[in-house]
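An instance follows:
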Amino acid sequence: MREKRWKVDIFIDEHEARTRAVARLENPDHTGLVGTGLARLSPRDTDVPEIGDELAAARALADLAHGLLEAAATDIEGVTAEPAHLRE
C-alpha cells in the first residue's frame, strides 16, 4: 500500500490583543483548503501569548476539519448522486 502524506502548516500572527491562526492543508487532492481561527485577550485576563496561540491554532484546525468534511460530502454526493450525511 502506498503511503500518502498530507501536510498542515499553521501560521500565527498577533495584532493588539488578538491572535489569528491560519491552517493550510498541502494535499494534491484538496488544494486550497484553509482554516482560520481567532483568539482575543480579555482585558481582565493575564497576558499569556502561548494560550492565545493554542486557542487560535485549535480553532483554525477545527475550521479546516469542517472544510474537509464538506469536501468529502461533496465528493460522496458526486459519486453516489445522493445526499451525503456525515457525522462530525
